Amino acid sequence: MDWSKWIRQAHRWLSIVFTATVVANFATMAFGQPPAWVVYSPLPPLFLMLFSGLYMFVLPYVAKGRSVQRVNG
């Protein structure tokens, strides 16, 4: 599996983990003030999704630049 497919799959799984942590966060808020680790638990998957999402966003532009470079070069 190449890097693009691996990062896309990791991004999908991170979104599931992020959603689960947000749901758990709201569920614990129903019982009062949750501990700090529950409140901040969505942040690590969110930051990892930020980096993988930015990579997937930039990827088509880099590929287009490479194809233009081959034609002109």
Describe it:
There is one protein chain. The chain has 73 residues and is mainly α. The protein contains 3 helices and no strands. The longest helix has 30 residues. It starts with a helix and ends with a helix.
Could you outline the blueprint of secondary structure elements for this entry?
Layout: H1 3-29, H2 36-39, H3 43-72
Helix pairs in contact: 1-3
What's the rounded overall pLDDT mean? 90
Number of beta strands: 0
Category from helices, strands and their pairing: mainly alpha
SSE topology string = HHH
Give the % helix. over 70%
Distance between the termini: 30 Å
Strand content: under 5%
Please count the helical segments. Answer: 3
- Residue windows where pLDDT falls under 50 for at least 5 positions: none
* Oligomer kind: single chain
Shape: rod-shaped
Profile the largest sheet: none
Radius of gyration, in angstroms, nearest whole number? 18 Å
Overview in brief:
The protein is mainly alpha-helical and 73 residues long. It has helices at 3-29, 36-39, 43-72.
Pick out its properties:
84% helix, 73 residues, mainly alpha, rod-shaped
